[in-house]
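Same chain as my last thread, 397 residues:
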Amino acid sequence: MKHVKRLITDFDLNDKKVIIRCDLNVPIKDGVILDDNRIKESLKTIKYAIGNNAKVIILSHLGRIKSEEDKIKNSLKPVAARLSELLQQDVVFVEETRGRVLEEHVKDLKPGEVLLVQNTRFEDYPDKKESTNDSELGKYWASLGDIFVNDAFGTAHRAHASNVGVASNLPSALGFLVEKELKMLEAVINNVKHPYTVIMGGAKMRDKIKVIDKLAQKADYLLFAGGIANTFLVASGYDLKASVYDEESVSYCKTLLDKYDDKIILPVDGYANLSYEDTDKPIYVQNEAVPDKSVVLDVGPKTINLFKKYILKSNTIFWNGPVGVFEFEHFKTGTKNICELLKESNAVVVVGGGDSASAVINLGYKNDFTHVSTGGGASLCYIEGKSLPGIEIINDK
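reply #2:
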């Protein structure tokens, strides 16, 4: 950060309506929360506001909203119930993102009470008002409060109405979670001890492929897996049959392979299935012999041995994205093995949020690394050296 930003502790919150932008974007299946880590990470800031007699109004998104059906499955109602349990007090949940009902509930709030507004991305259908930072929407949400606190690191790299929009219209500060994230990532950026290794996997390819050039200028080794590795392998001439890769990035990956041939390390083997689903009989494959119609869903033992060589000699490691489909019981071995190697290493290890954080927590390694971020895309942008709009907009001290 170029400037020192105001923190929630810099404001008198007594009897003030405090809007806190949290990242409560947790995985939910059939109304059941599968991983509540992001809710728990938000508690410190919310409890501080409650303890200082604030009237707390929470904004958060959940998933992507591109249809009316998405609204049904991405309601924040289960989150409100879990938040009530964790805070040990009732959380008022308003099913709307704007309007008279919301305004009346806000008016009725007493000091120490908490209100959760429905998923901010409900405003994205049909006209993307939240994610395009619609100025009127930002002004409207700001009109509900006196002070804005951004504690959603996971969306800090996006300029949305619920972070940049609200902060443009109210006195603003950072919450404790964002403060912690920035301190931890800043320490890594400013004190990189070489060899410095970046491990990158996961299914979100295009955004990550775009930042590789920048990361390669700083890192000594880049270990790729998942869809990113597949794209590089296709660029190298391998036929991975039905495996996912980003067709539009293949020629760019060829350029990167030529430029960073000594830094980019790719998988040599893996486990596949004939469809994108779990099976108790994974097919062992090598790059040059992937069976027809197969989908590679995890890295294999030779790849783990190859990666091990680089991980164990590294002093700083940044990991963004699992190396296989860890959600599938029979394709989580590679990601578990990476966790074990990172635990065994003497490196400063930062796990860059999103699915990699979810994997680390679900596999039981949350306390084994230097820092597990709550924001995948945001941590990647910050490590790359980009500014984060959701933080830049906050008032300086």
